[in-house]
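Sample pair:
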Amino acid sequence: MVRAGVVDANGNAKYTGLHPYRHFYASWLINRKADGGLELPIKTVQQRLGHSSIVMTSDTTPMAICSRAPMTVVKWQMRGAD
């Protein structure tokens, strides 16, 4: 949990209050449907979170975006094969 950035070295939660739910919501929007997410486009996620840019969204939710990367690459490669 420390390495993941969820808690500090003393075991205290990094985020308190409602902030962790915001991260959960962002991850849920981005994650693949096969993984229980909604698999929305990053632009839609940016708008729902109220971020000023896609860069802000991608910088604050990198793990969720990375979980979609392999599928994105496969889809792109399949399109190139046509």
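The CA atoms of residues 41 and 48 lie 11 Å apart.
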